[in-house]
TrEMBL record:
Family matches, as InterPro entries: HAD-like_sf, HAD-SF_hydro_IA, HAD_2, HAD_sf, PGP-like_dom2
Organism: Lactobacillus johnsonii N6.2
This protein's name: HAD family hydrolase
GO MF annotation list: hydrolase activity
Coiled coil (UniProt feature): none
Length: 199
C-alpha cells in the first residue's frame, strides 16, 4: 500500500525556466542572453546543485564574467531568483489533498541550498514531511545513494513509496530501488492523480 509521495522540485512543483525567471528583471535582449549563459548555463550552476561550491562563491565568479553595468544586476538575480519562480498551484492543492488522506510528502531535489531553504522557509515548506537536497548531501540524482539517504533518514519502505520527477533517468533510478515512479509534466497531473489513487 502506498504511503509516501516523494516530489522532485524543478518542473514538478514549479516551472524551472531561466528565461521566464529573467523576464522579472529589466534586461535588454542582449543582456538577458548574456546573463542566462553566464548564470544558468554555467558549469558553476551545476556545481551549486552538487554542493561543490556555494551560491556566494558562484556569484563572485559570475560577477567577474560580466561587464561593469551588469555586476549589480547579477548579484541581485542571484539573491532574489527563487522569488521569481512560478510554482504550480494545482500541484500544491493536490499535495494538500494527499496529506488530508494520510500520505506523507517528501522532497528529493537536485538543488542548491538557497532555493532549498527558500522552499523550506516559505509556506510551501508546510506541505512536506521531510527533504533530501543534493547540495547538502553532495550527491546528485540519479545516483542511488541520494535515494538511499531519503529512505534511511525517514525510515521509508521503498515499496510503499512513489517518486515523481520530470526526468526518466531519475524515475528509473527510483524503480531500481523498489519504488513506484512517475515521470511528470504539469499536463500529466490528472494521470498522476489516477495512478496514485489506483495504488
Amino acid at each position: 500500500m502506498l504511503k509516501n509521495i516523494i516530489f522532485d522540485f524543478g518542473n514538478v512543483i514549479m516551472n524551472y525556466n531561466p528565461d521566464e525567471i529573467l523576464n522579472h528583471y529589466e534586461l535588454s535582449p542582449e543582456d538577458h542572453d548574456l546573463v542566462r549563459k553566464t548564470i544558468f548555463e554555467s558549469k558553476e550552476w551545476g556545481e551549486i546543485d552538487s554542493g561543490k561550491i556555494t551560491e556566494e562563491e558562484a556569484t563572485e565568479i559570475f560577477i567577474s564574467k560580466v561587464p561593469d553595468k551588469l555586476k549589480s544586476k547579477v548579484k541581485q538575480i542571484m539573491v532574489t531568483w527563487p522569488e521569481n519562480v512560478d510554482f504550480y498551484e494545482p500541484v500544491f492543492n493536490y499535495m494538500e489533498e494527499l496529506r488530508k488522506q494520510g500520505y506523507k510528502i517528501y522532497g528529493l531535489s537536485n538543488t542548491g541550498m538557497q532555493f532549498a531553504n527558500f522552499v523550506k522557509n516559505s509556506e510551501m515548506g508546510n506541505y512536506f514531511d521531510g527533504y533530501v537536497f543534493s547540495a547538502q548531501e553532495k550527491l546528485m540524482k540519479p545516483d542511488r545513494r541520494i535515494y538511499e539517504r531519503l529512505i534511511a533518514r525517514y525510515i521509508l519502505n521503498p515499496e510503499e513509496s512513489i517518486f515523481i520527477d520530470d526526468l526518466k533517468a531519475n524515475t528509473d533510478a527510483a524503480k531500481k530501488l523498489g519504488m513506484l515512479a512517475f515521470t511528470f509534466k504539469i499536463d500529466k497531473l490528472g494521470e498522476l492523480q489516477e495512478y496514485i489513487s489506483n495504488h
